[in-house]
């Protein structure tokens, strides 16, 4: 099966996985609050936050494993792939032991923070079960590079969809018949173990030569992995800070209530960014293989093609939010949250620019130059905090949004392309030149649709919004692809479309 088809299948199933996760969370949240009560649901949320903190113990190792396993596969070196996997496995086993010990200590300490004697045992068990569950997931991260490098994104996403639905059904059943929050923890533990086993089977099927033996672990290889992963760790921390710093600024300078309209705008942008990322963020293994073979011509060609595709998708998704976002927020949350629309629009500019040039990030990871991405992220987060602290005093929520958008836009549109293009020996003007056609071809119909909708239609209900959004996507995507890509690129895109009428559009 061709690489393009594998990527298309991965894109569709990853987007489907994201959609399923959001829908399940949408329905399960009120159910759990009603059944468990505010007290126990709040405790479950806090324990979940603790589990999320444990994942920082990965320290960027998963990205390192993906990069070096992909490189080994690109060079057809199965032995080196197995050395990398088993070296990572030894590291992850050590991390898992540390997390289990931390969980035991945290479980014991948690008793001291609980006033109600009746709650102490339950909370102690929750902390221990979830901590051990997260720890047992870590050794399977050693296989991260296999599924990605072999382009088995669709199989991994299908496993996650199945386990999400299974977990939801089991949760609904056991909580409905009276079992409490400990049952929820046990269900989470058990479904995670089944998911781990299925993930191993996917990787073994994709890489039959896989060997699990700690005797293959190599000290030199571990140093190489840590050297690579440390910068991925910095990027992960910067990402967490970018996502959370605004809330603290708003709560500190305005009020806790002011966080809500900001969160509404941010949530819509996050959902769109999440869907887009799941659809196309799969190219590190491919770029790594080209880099390992020193095939710069193919690396540059694929990078520019994916960048154009990302730009069209970003313009359509972002344009849709700009055109219909105000009507959607009014219908969803009420007209009193109109400020959320402008927060959304401002944040959208930076995030969509970031998504459009995300292939440059992937190329930097592939070329082992992601330390530059980490440094840019640190600078961005620092300027974000400083600007937000200044602008919030003059423009309230809009100031915080601008403080986030301006560094992101500046660094992603100008600084990152300069360093990324230099890292992969590609002239920067080739990168910017590739954006002109798809930008104009997609933006012009979007502007026309915006003027038409706001002058005449003014949708008020979900059915109108859905219908007009579908029409916008068809028109903008058809024109954007038809006039924004070369004939050879359009030929490749047509091969991916299963419906004859859609092929005609491009």
Descriptive notes:
This protein has 506 residues and is mainly α. It has a domain at 1-217. The protein has helices spanning 3-54, 61-74, 78-110, 117-137, 144-149, 153-176, 181-206, 219-253, 259-280, 284-292, 296-332, 339-356, 358-366, 370-423, 428-457, 462-484, 487-496, 500-505. α2 packs antiparallel against α3 (78-110).
Please describe the structure with a list of short key phrases separated by commas or semicolons.
single chain, mainly alpha, 506 residues
Write the layout of secondary structure elements.
Elements: H1 3-54, H2 61-74, H3 78-110, H4 117-137, H5 144-149, H6 153-176, H7 181-206, H8 219-253, H9 259-280, H10 284-292, H11 296-332, H12 339-356, H13 358-366, H14 370-423, H15 428-457, H16 462-484, H17 487-496, H18 500-505
Helix pairs in contact: 1-4, 1-6, 1-9, 2-3, 2-8, 2-10, 3-4, 3-8, 4-7, 6-7, 8-14, 9-11, 9-12, 10-13, 11-12, 11-13, 11-15, 11-16, 12-14, 13-14, 15-16
Largest sheet: none
Number of helices: 18
How would you describe the shape?
globular
Low-confidence stretches: 501-506
Question: What order do the helices and strands follow?
Answer: HHHHHHHHHHHHHHHHHH
In short:
By secondary structure, the chain is an all-alpha fold. Helices cover 85% and strands 0% of the residues.
């Amino acid at each position: 099966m061709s690489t393009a088809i594998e990527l298309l299948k991965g894109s569709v199933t990853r987007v489907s996985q994201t959609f399923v996760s959001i829908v399940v969370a949408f329905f399960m949240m009120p159910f759990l609050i009603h059944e468990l009560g505010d007290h126990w649901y709040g405790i479950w949320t806090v324990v979940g936050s603790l589990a999320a903190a444990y994942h920082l113990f990965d320290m960027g190792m998963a990205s390192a494993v993906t990069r070096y396993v992909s490189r080994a596969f690109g060079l057809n070196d199965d032995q080196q792939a197995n050395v990398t996997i088993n070296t990572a496995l030894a590291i992850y086993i050590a991390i898992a032991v540390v997390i289990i010990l931390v969980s035991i200590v945290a479980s014991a300490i948690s008793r001291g923070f609980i006033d109600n004697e009746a709650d102490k045992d339950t909370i102690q068990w929750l902390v221990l079960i979830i901590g051990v569950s997260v720890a047992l997931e870590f050794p399977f991260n050693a296989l991260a590079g296999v599924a990605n490098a072999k382009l088995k994104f669709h199989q991994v996403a299908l496993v996650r969809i199945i386990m999400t639905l299974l977990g939801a059904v089991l949760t609904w059943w056991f909580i409905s018949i009276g079992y409490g929050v400990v049952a929820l923890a046990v269900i989470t533990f058990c479904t995670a173990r089944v998911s781990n086993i299925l993930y191993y089977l996917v990787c073994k099927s994709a890489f039959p030569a896989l060997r699990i033996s700690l005797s293959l672990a190599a000290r030199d290889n571990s140093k190489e992995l840590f050297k690579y992963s440390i910068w991925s760790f910095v990027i992960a921390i910067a990402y967490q800070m970018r996502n959370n710093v605004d809330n603290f600024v708003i709560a500190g300078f305005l009020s806790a209530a002011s966080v809500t309209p900001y969160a509404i705008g941010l949530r819509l942008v996050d959902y769109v960014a999440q869907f887009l990322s799941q659809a196309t963020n799969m190219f590190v293994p491919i770029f790594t293989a080209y880099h390992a073979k020193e095939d710069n011509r193919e690396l540059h060609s694929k990078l520019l093609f994916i960048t154009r595709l990302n730009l069209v998708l970003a313009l359509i998704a972002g344009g849709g939010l700009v055109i219909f976002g105000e009507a959607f927020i009014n219908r969803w949350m009420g007209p009193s949250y109109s400020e959320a629309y402008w927060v959304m629009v401002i944040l959208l500019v930076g995030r969509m620019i970031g998504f459009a040039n995300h292939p440059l990030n992937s190329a930097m990871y592939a070329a082992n130059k992601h330390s530059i991405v980490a440094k840019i992220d640190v600078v961005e987060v620092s300027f974000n905090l400083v600007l937000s602290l200044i602008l919030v005093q003059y423009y309230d929520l809009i100031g915080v949004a601008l403080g986030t958008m301006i560094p992101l836009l500046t660094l992603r549109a100008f600084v990152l392309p300069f360093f990324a293009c230099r890292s992969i020996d590609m002239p920067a003007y080739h990168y910017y030149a590739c954006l002109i056609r798809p930008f104009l071809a997609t933006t012009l119909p979007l502007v026309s649709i915006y003027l038409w909708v706001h002058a005449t239609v003014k949708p008020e209900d979900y059915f109108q919004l859905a219908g007009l959004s579908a029409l916008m996507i068809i028109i903008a995507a058809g024109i954007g692809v038809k006039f924004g890509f070369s004939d050879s690129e359009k030929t490749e895109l047509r091969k991916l479309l299963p419906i004859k009428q859609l092929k005609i559009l491009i």
